[in-house]
Protein backbone atom coordinates (compact mmCIF):
# COMPACT_ATOMS: atom_id res chain seq x y z
CA UNK A 1 0.00 0.00 0.00
CA UNK A 2 1.26 3.48 -0.88
CA UNK A 3 0.62 5.79 2.07
CA UNK A 4 0.61 9.60 2.05
CA UNK A 5 3.17 11.70 3.88
CA UNK A 6 2.23 12.45 7.52
CA UNK A 7 -0.08 9.45 7.78
CA UNK A 8 -1.17 8.42 11.28
CA UNK A 9 -3.04 5.36 12.55
CA UNK A 10 -4.81 6.33 15.77
CA UNK A 11 -5.68 3.50 18.17
CA UNK A 12 -7.95 4.42 21.11
CA UNK A 13 -7.59 1.70 23.74
CA UNK A 14 -9.16 0.93 27.10
CA UNK A 15 -7.78 -2.25 28.73
CA UNK A 16 -6.64 -3.78 25.42
CA UNK A 17 -3.20 -5.03 26.54
CA UNK A 18 -4.08 -8.61 25.58
CA UNK A 19 -4.96 -7.75 21.98
CA UNK A 20 -2.63 -4.84 21.17
CA UNK A 21 0.54 -6.85 20.36
CA UNK A 22 -1.17 -8.69 17.50
CA UNK A 23 -3.01 -5.54 16.34
CA UNK A 24 0.23 -3.54 16.22
CA UNK A 25 2.16 -6.35 14.51
CA UNK A 26 -0.51 -6.60 11.81
CA UNK A 27 -0.54 -2.84 11.24
CA UNK A 28 3.25 -2.67 11.05
CA UNK A 29 3.21 -5.50 8.50
CA UNK A 30 0.38 -4.27 6.28
CA UNK A 31 0.90 -0.49 6.48
CA UNK A 32 4.63 -0.24 7.31
CA UNK A 33 4.86 3.42 6.27
CA UNK A 34 2.15 4.55 8.67
CA UNK A 35 3.00 6.01 12.06
CA UNK A 36 1.09 4.54 14.99
CA UNK A 37 -0.31 6.26 18.08
CA UNK A 38 -2.07 4.55 20.98
CA UNK A 39 -4.32 6.72 23.13
CA UNK A 40 -4.68 4.91 26.46
CA UNK A 41 -8.12 5.84 27.78
CA UNK A 42 -7.51 5.39 31.51
CA UNK A 43 -6.64 1.70 31.30
CA UNK A 44 -5.88 -0.36 34.40
CA UNK A 45 -4.23 -3.32 32.67
CA UNK A 46 -0.86 -1.84 31.68
CA UNK A 47 -1.87 -0.78 28.16
CA UNK A 48 0.36 2.30 28.38
CA UNK A 49 3.40 0.35 29.58
CA UNK A 50 2.86 -2.16 26.79
CA UNK A 51 2.81 0.57 24.16
CA UNK A 52 6.08 1.95 25.50
CA UNK A 53 7.72 -1.50 25.55
CA UNK A 54 6.69 -2.11 21.94
CA UNK A 55 8.23 1.18 20.78
CA UNK A 56 4.93 2.73 19.70
CA UNK A 57 4.01 6.35 20.38
CA UNK A 58 1.36 6.75 23.05
CA UNK A 59 -0.72 9.25 24.97
CA UNK A 60 -1.95 8.45 28.48
CA UNK A 61 -5.31 9.77 29.69
CA UNK A 62 -5.27 9.30 33.46
CA UNK A 63 -9.07 9.31 33.68
CA UNK A 64 -11.36 7.49 31.32
CA UNK A 65 -13.11 9.88 28.93
CA UNK A 66 -14.67 7.43 26.48
CA UNK A 67 -13.62 6.45 22.99
CA UNK A 68 -14.75 9.74 21.43
CA UNK A 69 -12.68 11.77 23.89
CA UNK A 70 -9.69 9.52 23.27
CA UNK A 71 -10.04 10.06 19.52
CA UNK A 72 -10.24 13.83 20.05
CA UNK A 73 -7.00 13.72 22.06
CA UNK A 74 -5.33 11.78 19.26
CA UNK A 75 -6.57 14.23 16.65
CA UNK A 76 -5.13 17.13 18.66
CA UNK A 77 -1.79 15.34 18.59
CA UNK A 78 -2.16 14.81 14.84
CA UNK A 79 -3.05 18.47 14.21
CA UNK A 80 -0.06 19.73 16.18
CA UNK A 81 2.32 17.49 14.27
CA UNK A 82 0.79 18.24 10.86
CA UNK A 83 -0.56 14.85 9.85
CA UNK A 84 -2.62 15.09 6.67
CA UNK A 85 -4.58 11.86 7.13
CA UNK A 86 -5.57 10.02 10.30
CA UNK A 87 -7.14 6.57 10.38
CA UNK A 88 -8.88 5.33 13.52
CA UNK A 89 -8.44 1.62 14.22
CA UNK A 90 -9.83 -0.01 17.36
CA UNK A 91 -7.43 -1.83 19.65
CA UNK A 92 -9.49 -5.03 19.90
CA UNK A 93 -8.44 -6.50 16.54
CA UNK A 94 -11.87 -6.37 14.89
CA UNK A 95 -10.79 -4.06 12.06
CA UNK A 96 -8.96 -5.40 8.99
CA UNK A 97 -5.84 -3.29 8.26
CA UNK A 98 -6.12 -4.35 4.62
CA UNK A 99 -9.14 -2.02 4.36
CA UNK A 100 -7.10 1.08 5.25
CA UNK A 101 -6.20 1.60 1.60
CA UNK A 102 -9.91 1.77 0.70
CA UNK A 103 -10.54 4.20 3.55
CA UNK A 104 -7.87 6.70 2.55
CA UNK A 105 -8.35 6.49 -1.23
CA UNK A 106 -11.34 8.93 -1.43
CA UNK A 107 -9.46 11.41 0.78
CA UNK A 108 -6.36 11.24 -1.42
CA UNK A 109 -8.60 11.81 -4.45
CA UNK A 110 -10.21 14.81 -2.69
CA UNK A 111 -13.65 13.19 -2.85
CA UNK A 112 -14.31 13.26 0.91
CA UNK A 113 -13.07 14.61 4.25
CA UNK A 114 -14.42 11.82 6.48
CA UNK A 115 -14.61 8.17 5.47
CA UNK A 116 -16.67 5.68 7.46
CA UNK A 117 -16.09 1.97 7.09
CA UNK A 118 -19.44 0.22 6.65
CA UNK A 119 -20.07 -3.41 7.59
CA UNK A 120 -23.55 -3.42 6.08
CA UNK A 121 -23.30 -2.08 2.52
CA UNK A 122 -25.47 -3.80 -0.11
CA UNK A 123 -23.89 -7.08 -1.16
CA UNK A 124 -21.85 -7.44 2.03
CA UNK A 125 -23.93 -10.39 3.19
CA UNK A 126 -24.36 -8.80 6.63
CA UNK A 127 -27.53 -7.28 8.00
CA UNK A 128 -27.69 -4.64 10.71
CA UNK A 129 -29.96 -5.17 13.71
CA UNK A 130 -33.26 -3.38 14.12
CA UNK A 131 -31.84 -0.54 16.24
CA UNK A 132 -28.95 0.06 13.84
CA UNK A 133 -31.30 0.07 10.84
CA UNK A 134 -33.60 2.57 12.53
CA UNK A 135 -30.67 4.80 13.45
CA UNK A 136 -29.27 4.54 9.92
CA UNK A 137 -32.63 5.60 8.48
CA UNK A 138 -32.80 8.63 10.79
CA UNK A 139 -29.25 9.67 9.96
CA UNK A 140 -29.83 9.22 6.24
CA UNK A 141 -32.76 11.62 6.51
CA UNK A 142 -30.94 14.18 8.66
CA UNK A 143 -27.65 14.18 6.73
CA UNK A 144 -29.23 13.74 3.28
CA UNK A 145 -26.70 11.08 2.36
CA UNK A 146 -26.89 7.28 2.53
CA UNK A 147 -25.91 5.83 5.91
CA UNK A 148 -25.78 2.04 6.30
CA UNK A 149 -23.55 1.64 9.36
CA UNK A 150 -24.14 4.35 11.98
CA UNK A 151 -21.89 2.83 14.68
CA UNK A 152 -18.69 1.88 12.86
CA UNK A 153 -15.48 2.98 14.56
CA UNK A 154 -13.26 2.21 11.55
CA UNK A 155 -12.83 5.59 9.86
CA UNK A 156 -10.42 8.04 8.25
CA UNK A 157 -10.06 11.82 8.43
CA UNK A 158 -8.50 14.19 5.92
CA UNK A 159 -6.69 17.43 6.73
CA UNK A 160 -9.85 19.59 6.88
CA UNK A 161 -11.56 17.10 9.20
CA UNK A 162 -8.53 16.88 11.46
CA UNK A 163 -8.46 20.68 11.75
CA UNK A 164 -12.10 20.85 12.84
CA UNK A 165 -12.45 17.62 14.82
CA UNK A 166 -9.30 18.05 16.91
CA UNK A 167 -11.38 20.46 19.00
CA UNK A 168 -14.90 19.25 18.27
CA UNK A 169 -14.90 15.46 17.81
CA UNK A 170 -17.86 14.17 19.85
CA UNK A 171 -17.01 12.42 23.10
CA UNK A 172 -18.39 9.19 24.56
CA UNK A 173 -19.66 6.63 22.01
CA UNK A 174 -19.45 9.14 19.23
CA UNK A 175 -19.85 7.46 15.84
CA UNK A 176 -23.46 8.45 15.06
CA UNK A 177 -22.96 11.96 16.44
CA UNK A 178 -19.85 12.32 14.26
CA UNK A 179 -22.02 11.79 11.18
CA UNK A 180 -24.38 14.54 12.29
CA UNK A 181 -21.57 16.93 13.19
CA UNK A 182 -19.77 16.34 9.88
CA UNK A 183 -22.93 17.05 7.90
CA UNK A 184 -23.68 20.20 9.91
CA UNK A 185 -20.16 21.57 9.38
CA UNK A 186 -19.70 20.89 5.70
CA UNK A 187 -17.32 17.95 6.03
CA UNK A 188 -17.86 15.62 3.11
CA UNK A 189 -18.56 12.15 4.48
CA UNK A 190 -18.67 8.89 2.58
CA UNK A 191 -18.98 5.20 3.42
CA UNK A 192 -16.80 2.43 1.99
CA UNK A 193 -17.34 -1.29 2.61
CA UNK A 194 -15.12 -2.97 5.20
CA UNK A 195 -15.13 -6.35 6.89
CA UNK A 196 -15.32 -7.13 10.58
CA UNK A 197 -14.04 -10.02 12.69
CA UNK A 198 -14.13 -11.21 16.29
CA UNK A 199 -12.17 -9.49 19.01
CA UNK A 200 -8.67 -10.85 19.61
CA UNK A 201 -9.26 -10.86 23.38
CA UNK A 202 -11.41 -9.33 26.10
CA UNK A 203 -14.98 -8.12 25.81
CA UNK A 204 -16.76 -4.99 24.67
CA UNK A 205 -17.12 -2.09 27.10
CA UNK A 206 -20.53 -1.30 25.59
CA UNK A 207 -22.62 -2.93 28.31
CA UNK A 208 -26.46 -2.85 28.20
CA UNK A 209 -26.46 0.17 30.52
CA UNK A 210 -23.95 1.98 28.33
CA UNK A 211 -25.93 1.04 25.21
CA UNK A 212 -28.98 2.70 26.75
CA UNK A 213 -26.97 5.81 27.66
CA UNK A 214 -25.44 5.94 24.18
CA UNK A 215 -28.86 5.59 22.55
CA UNK A 216 -30.25 8.43 24.67
CA UNK A 217 -27.29 10.64 23.77
CA UNK A 218 -27.71 9.89 20.07
CA UNK A 219 -31.41 10.74 20.23
CA UNK A 220 -30.55 14.05 21.90
CA UNK A 221 -27.80 14.74 19.35
CA UNK A 222 -30.25 14.29 16.47
CA UNK A 223 -32.18 17.23 17.90
CA UNK A 224 -29.33 19.43 19.15
CA UNK A 225 -26.53 19.03 16.59
CA UNK A 226 -28.50 20.37 13.59
CA UNK A 227 -29.21 23.49 15.66
CA UNK A 228 -25.60 24.12 16.72
CA UNK A 229 -23.54 26.90 15.21
CA UNK A 230 -21.22 25.89 12.42
CA UNK A 231 -17.54 25.86 13.40
CA UNK A 232 -14.78 27.20 11.18
CA UNK A 233 -11.16 26.15 11.42
CA UNK A 234 -11.75 24.54 14.80
CA UNK A 235 -13.45 27.64 16.26
CA UNK A 236 -17.21 28.16 16.90
Describe the overall structure:
This protein has 236 residues and is an alpha/beta fold. The chain has one domain (7-227): Spore Coat Polysaccharide Biosynthesis Protein SpsA, Chain A (Alpha-Beta Complex), CATH 3.90.550. 39% of the residues lie in helices and 15% in strands. The chain contains eight helices and seven strands. It has helices at residues 20-30, 47-53, 67-81, 100-108, 130-143, 159-168, 175-184, 208-224, and strands at residues 7-13, 35-41, 57-61, 85-88, 114-118, 155-157, 189-193. Strands 3-2-1-4-6-5-7 form a seven-stranded mixed beta sheet, with helices on both faces. Helix 3 crosses helix 6.
Report on the biggest sheet. Answer: 7 strands, mixed
Structurally, the number of domains stands at: 1
Question: Superfamily at the CATH H level?
Answer: Spore Coat Polysaccharide Biosynthesis Protein SpsA, Chain A
Shape: globular
CATH architecture: Alpha-Beta Complex
Class from secondary-structure proportions? alpha/beta
- Biggest sheet strand order reads 3-2-1-4-6-5-7
Give structural attributes.
about 240 residues; alpha/beta; Spore Coat Polysaccharide Biosynthesis Protein SpsA, Chain A; 7-stranded mixed beta sheet; 8 helices; 7 strands; about 40% helix; about 15% strand; globular
In short:
The protein is α/β, with parallel strands linked by helices and 236 residues long. The chain has one domain: Spore Coat Polysaccharide Biosynthesis Protein SpsA, Chain A, CATH 3.90.550.10.
Amino acid sequence: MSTPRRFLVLIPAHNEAASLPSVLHELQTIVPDAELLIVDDGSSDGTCRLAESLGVRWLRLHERVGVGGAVRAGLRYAAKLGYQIVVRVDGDGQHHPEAIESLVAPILADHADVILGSRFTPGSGRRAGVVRRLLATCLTTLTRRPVTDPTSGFCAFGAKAVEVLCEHHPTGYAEAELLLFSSRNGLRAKEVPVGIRDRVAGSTTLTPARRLTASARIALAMVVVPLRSVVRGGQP
